[in-house]
Amino acid sequence: MHYLIEGIDPAPYRQLFELDDAALAARNIVRVTADGKPGFPCRVTLDEAEVGETLLLLNHTSRDGATPYCASHAIFVREAGTAPARFVDSVPPVFGPRKLSLRGFDASGMMVDAMITEPGEAAGGLETLFANPEIVEIDVHNAVRGCFAARARRA
Fold it and tell me: Which of 20, 27, 63, 147 has the fewest CB atoms found within 10 Å of its own CB?
């Protein structure tokens, strides 16, 4: 069983970094500076921002379509995140220190199974859920704050 985890496409967010804070606020977006590590997980690079880096905190639709499981939540996107990270059969560094919620979906966008993993157990949780042949993708969320972390797909 092989899987792929990719960061989100940064293209829709690149021009937002050029806006001033008032223009961002009008779009419900906040510019922040990372003041600790961990604490500012970028959804493009799937790694923690370094202290002093600029990020945008914004709403992101992680699941849409003809399903009752449509979802959106706040995420961080770092200014330095110019290309989506890509992990094959491995988990990104941002998963490591976090308790995660894994939600397995079938091809029609219906949730088939879900589980919580403790820090360091994400890879095992992904393998457990992907052992179910109905599951084609798994949405990974930070369990404590609930925000979307990444999506794993069968490769």
Answer: 20
